[in-house]
TrEMBL record:
Its main location: cytoplasm. This is Tethering factor for nuclear proteasome STS1. Residues 19-32, 49-67 have a biased composition (Polar residues). Belongs to the cut8/STS1 family. It is found in: Cytoplasm; Nucleus.
Amino acid sequence: MNSLLAAAPPVPPHRFQDSRFSPNRTMATPSSSRKRKASLSPSPEGDPMSTSPAMPNARLPTNTTPRSIKRARPNLTGKPLLIPRLLETLDAKSLRSVIQALCDKHGSAIQEEIRHLAPRPSVSSTLQVLREYQHTMNAAFPIGDNPGSDYSYNRVRQHLNTLLDALSDFTPQFLPPVEPQSSTSLTYLDGVMSIIHELPQWDSASHNLVKENAYEEIARAWGCVIREASKRGGGIQLQYGGWDDKLRRHNELAGGRLAEAVNELRQSLAWMAAGRGPGTDHPEPQSSIRQQLFSGTYGPGAASMRTGTGW
């Protein structure tokens, strides 16, 4: 037994055998017993004398409302484009084709709806369309050939008919009673006359019939507008707008084909020459109807209305 105890290895001392579990109490020194003066500035982070623990990396909880994030749809499939977006991609020609196809398919019901919603065509926009047709016709002429030959006529005949058809369709839109303003009608006719004057003159008389018909149709339009304008204000708008001079010049360029319209205009303005004496070129100031209109003495009872009697 003693031999076994003697052979056992010695036990090592315990690790914390001589250590103290409480901190050592040191003697207070005069320097450590002094109180620290309070600082006026806030204590920096990490100051051991701070009354609150330092939290340099701590994040305080915030009561923020969660943002509504639009999530991508998981099952994204193709679908037709919305009509407003589809119309944004169409040019003017494609849009006209779509509207024309709808009119052909649904008949007069949708045509009246479109006519009601669409703005009225202006004189400038209409003349621009006619000028585009004219430009297309002029571009179809063969280079180096006689512009009045039959070959040139066959090359541009389709474009010429397209221009004349558009002219026939647009003209009634600017005539009374559809167009109430005589000045608008006269402005349109003045612009259209320039296009008709520039139509080609062919060597064959049969090919020139289309131009003759255009002059005849536009002459009737002039007469219609002149008769309507003469009913408003005694035709003063015709005289002061210079339309008598313009129509006379158009008649000269047309070779006298507008003589009927010129006579209609002269008859409408005949009352303005009533105050002119024989052999004089200027109206008498006392008897001129124009002066009476400006002074307010034209017509029976004008004097009594001016003096306040006769009521």
